[in-house]
From TrEMBL:
GO CC aspect terms: cytoplasm
Any single biological process term in GO: regulation of translational initiation
Presence of keyword Coiled coil: no
Record domain RWD: where: 1-74
Stated family: Belongs to the IMPACT family.
SUPFAM superfamilies in the cross-refs: Ribosomal protein S5 domain 2-like, UBC-like
Subcellular location: Cytoplasm
The entry's keywords: Cytoplasm, Repressor, Stress response, Translation regulation
Keyword Cytoplasm among record annotations: yes
Protein's name in the database: RWD domain-containing protein
Pfam families xref list: Impact_N, RWD
Chief site of localization: cytoplasm
Domain of life: Eukaryota
């Protein structure tokens, strides 16, 4: 379902499991690449709250109207559209690190594939992500969640770790991936998990 408010559009994917609405909430996913990570996490949290509070009731209309109201109230800074294309000049000049692709794993109705690259800067991270998105199958996947950790030395010789993650609409996936990388003490690495 497309939910449009002005020039902002959210794709809302809804699945109604056999337990809906009597015993459980509907399952849903959002696609809004223009929406900032914090705003998207806040919206998903609010939708989860509405779903749980309305178990036993038909709640899809409430969810859709909440999304519409949320988008309508967004300040301009939360709705900056970021578009990376093959022809982005700054990315063409970058040397893309080698990318290792894992085996495809099928679990229930989802298909997953992991990708990893050695990265030493944010430019490396951007370059790898742009290179992966040149593959139409990967760019059209439901989710491309990722996490990276880069160890850098300061002028004083101390080590600093630059790290971040993006869940791409897959709740908690990026933060769990980051946690696993910390536990494994994995530095200078970018890990991407694609889910179809």
């Amino acid at each position: 379902m497309k939910i449009k408010e002005g020039d902002k559009e959210v794709l809302f994917f809804i699945t109604m499991p056999p337990t809906y609405p009597e015993l459980g909430p509907p399952k849903y996913e959002l696609s809004a690449p223009w929406l900032g990570r914090k705003a998207k996490a806040k919206l998903l949290h609010e939708l989860d709250t509405i779903s749980i509070e309305n178990i036993g009731e038909v709640s899809i209309y409430l969810l859709i109207e909440h999304i519409r109201g949320f988008v309508r109230k967004l300040p301009p800074s939360d709705s900056i559209r970021i578009k990376i294309t093959k022809k982005t000049p700054c990315l063409e000049k970058l040397n893309c690190p080698d990318i290792t692709h894992g085996d495809v794993i099928v679990d229930r109705k989802s298909v997953f594939q992991g990708h990893a690259a050695e990265v030493h800067s944010l430019d490396d991270v951007k370059s790898v992500l742009a290179k992966l998105k040149e593959n139409k199958k990967i760019s059209n996947a439901k989710h491309n969640m990722y996490a990276y950790r880069i160890k850098q030395s300061t002028a004083k010789g101390t080590a600093v770790v630059v790290q971040d993650f993006d869940e791409d609409g897959e709740a908690h996936a990026g933060s769990r991936l980051m946690h696993l990388m910390k536990v494994m003490d994995l530095d200078n690495t970018l890990v991407i998990v694609t889910r179809w």
